[in-house]
Structures are given as C-alpha cells and as structure tokens.
Amino acid sequence: MKKQLHLTYFLIIPFVLFGCSNPSTEEKATVPSPESSLETTIISEEKESSEAVEVDSASSSHSTDEVESSLPSETYTTLNDYSNEEIEYARIWLQLGANQELDQLYAKKIPAGTLLNPDDESSAVYPEEVIQLTGTRLVDGSITYSSNGDGTINLYTVPLRWDGVYPAGEEFYRDLLDQTKQVSIEPNVEEDIIEFIQLLTIE
C-alpha cells in the first residue's frame, strides 16, 4: 500500500511542476515587447510631425499668395511693343518737328507720281513714295520725307499749304526737288519716342 502511494506522488509531482514552469500562450501574447512599443511611438510621432509640416506649408503658401496678390501690378512699355513705322515717325518728328507740344501727330503716305502741289497742273511729281507728318494746326508745321532704310531720310522742302499764283511752272517745282537733302536720324530717348507714338494716327 505505501509503495502504491509513493508511486502516485511521483507521478503527480512532475505534472504540477510542468504546469508552474509553462505560462499560457495567451499570457505571453498579451505582454508587449519594449522594442515594439518604442517603434509604435516613433511612427506615431513621425506621422504627427509630417502632418504639422504639411499644415505649415499650406499656411505659408496661402500667406505668400495673399502677399503677391496684394502687390500692385506694374507694366512697362518699351519700343518692342510698337512697329518700325511707328518708331520711325516718332523719331523723325522728335528730331525735326517744329512744334514738340503736339495734341496729335498724323502720318500720311503719298504715292510716287503724286503732284507736289495738287492745286497746280504744272507741278512736278514726287519721284518716290513719301511720308508726310503733320500736327492738328498749321503752326505745328509738317515734315515730308522718304526713308532710305539705313537711319537716314530724304527730306523734301515742300510746304503743307501752297500760297501763290498758279501755274508756277515746272522750273519752280524742280528747284524745290533739287533742295531735297539727306538727314541722319538719331535714335533719341526711348521714353520721348513712346510719348509721340501714343499721339500718332496713321492715315
């Protein structure tokens, strides 16, 4: 009987010891790893930091747009905004015009073969196409010329309004044509040229 009892004790003890030394799998799973906890914290902090940067960036961009939209827009006009003809007319008047205080500047093309004096049948004709620049009044004067395309012009000595007794004769008009002279046109100040261009009307 004692032997059986001792044998029973020996069989029970190992099971008890095994049960104490092996915690359940569920308990192991519920204990968080220090490394895992640290990684979670770092990821969370990085996400918050990234979101904060995005908010700051959006705020900064919005602020910059507001500042730019509040600045006054400035436009600058240069000679590149105008045609070669407009620049030529303005330069010539700026250099040769009798009156620099014009209300308006007019430019008219006169074809080759046109009478110098349309009121006189004995008048000579223009040997080439010319440009006539005038103001709004006779006192403003006039400029009649042809361009050589090289910075020089042929300046004709003809009046805007003809006074006298007609017919004046071909020799009279031929003498006027002989007085035509070549003039070099200076580049001049850009702002002054633009000022006359803005007064210009091409007929």
Quick take:
The chain has helices spanning 2-21, 25-30, 34-70, 84-96, 170-178, 190-197; strands at 105-110, 130-134, 142-147, 152-156, 181-184, 200-202. It is built from six helices and six strands; from the N terminus they run ααααββββαβαβ.
Provide the residue-averaged pLDDT: 79
Instruction: Give the H and E element order.
Output: HHHHEEEEHEHE
What is the end-to-end distance? 142 Å
Strand order, main sheet: write it out: 5-4-3-2-1-6
Residue share in helix: 40-55%
Count of separate structural domains: 2
* Helix run count: 6
- Low-confidence blocks of residues: 5-9, 14-32, 66-73
How much of the sequence lies in strands comes to 5-15%
Q: What best-fitting shape do the alpha-carbon axes yield?
A: elongated
Count the beta strands: 6
Radius of gyration: 50 Å
Structural class from helices and strands? alpha+beta
Largest sheet: 6 strands, mixed
Please characterize this protein's 3D structure:
This is Lipoprotein. This protein is an alpha+beta fold and about 200 residues long. The chain folds into 2 domains: about 20-70; about 85-200, no CATH class. Helix content is about 45%, strand content about 15%. The protein is built from 6 helices and 6 strands. The protein has helices spanning about 1-20, 25-30, 35-70, 85-95, 170-180, 190-195; strands at about 105-110, 130-135, 140-145, 150-155, 180-185, 200. The chain has a 6-stranded mixed beta sheet with strand order 5-4-3-2-1-6. A hairpin with a 7-residue loop joins β2 and β3. α4 (about 85-95) crosses α6 (about 190-195). The protein is elongated. Mean pLDDT is about 80; it is low at about 5-10, about 15-30 and about 65-75.
